[in-house]
What does this fold into?
Amino acid sequence: MANLRTSVTTKKLEMKPVPLLVLLLSFKPEGAKTKEDGIQMITTGKEYWYNACFGDEGYTLKNFYKEMSGGKFYFEPAKVIGTDTPGVLEVVLDIPHPDRMNREMPGKNHGVAFYCIAEALKKADPYIDFAYYDNDEGGYLSSDEFNVLLIHAGYDISGGKDFTDKLRWGVFANCGSLPEDENQDGIKGAIAPELDGVKLCAKGIGCYTLVGEYRQMGGEFIPHPIGTIAHELGHSIGFHDVYDYDKEVVGWPLPYMFSLMGHGNYGNANAENDVLKGSVPQHLDPFQKIRSGFAVPEEVNENGEYTVRSLSGVDANILKINTPDPKEYFLLENRQMEGFSKGLYRRRCTVDENGEPSDVCENYEQGGIIIWHIDEDIFDRYSVIKRTNGSGFFNPDTEEEDDAARHDPGIVALFKNGFDENGLLKNDGKFVLGYPEDPFFRGGDVFNSNEYISAATHTRSLNSFPEGVSPDTYNLKIEFLEDNGEEMKIRVTQTK
Ligand SMILES: [Zn+2]
It folds into this structure.
């Protein structure tokens, strides 16, 4: 799930469909007889992936990105020559599955993975005119021009390392780029290939996205749900992870289910059925949505009454309440239990008669308004570092000494009743961290920003205050004037 590439911040995208090639990879080395030799063939078929990625019905990748962008952005099938399944191509590679190759070449996992990607693209070359997609004629395909999703036959290790007789070999879903100048780990061919005169998946310009064909969910292997694919392709077009990499502080305030780049890729409209986890991914957090151009916020600079409309509806809006610090503000969104938001759920810890605890997931009966606290300075400062999310620990290998200070996350969902006196998410032994019972604000509720405390510095309301603004008197009060619904009226009163 990691993003191997780093870019400075979430980037602005052009709002138009982007071509996607779904490449199904089977592995059948010459002379190989058994799975142990590295054979692993695709068993799901092209039709399955066409429907999952490009289908117009139900919870598909296309409908997901359309809902997030108000219909403006989604992945469309790349032009594949001579296929009855648009955008989807199966190739059989004359090499062992990369997982098998790793056995022969320990410590060269990246090189092996990159070599397989480059081989697959070369094998696809006769069926695609890659030069056709080089809109700026720069000699490279960038992620706004063309994307490739490589489905590796076998299983995905993100669901566990168990394998079966049928699913012998695995890869770990990720998004990244190939080196341009030098073969990775000295493996010949582990480099960005140049095909039809353009370079593909080259570092800093283009990306690949790869997943294993099957993933373990609720103890069963199922074709990889679209949640992970939506998340990894999100990296490809510039989104950043907002989950915790090191989990060193329990309850660090992160978006969890409420961002595609947190745990939102595990959304599920039938929450009690573990096997369906990831089948209904969740909207991206509103900050990255605005940054990437998926949404334009409605600015609030005056006290008064405003309306917040359902994110899944045709009139969706996001309110941006500005504060005395232009880089810190609050975003409000209305998440109703419709569209992809039907996949939101709470997680409750129960104990059976033998005292054994287990987690039970339930979809929320009703939605409401989620309030976000954004600190752009923090996001921009740390998004080049893997801990964008703000887990806040210093990594001497990749970071300057200066980055060592624990910092707040740049994107925080201020769940109703969700935090303790230290600004950390409550863990009451009943509701599992990050999956609160009812995080939504609705009619009759009142939000006061000064009741929310920064987890790092323990300031109230904001992380930092411009000169002349006192943390003792500053408050943003939001009154929720209407019952839960597609449109909800609120009153904003900011005291400086
Ligand atoms: Zn990720």
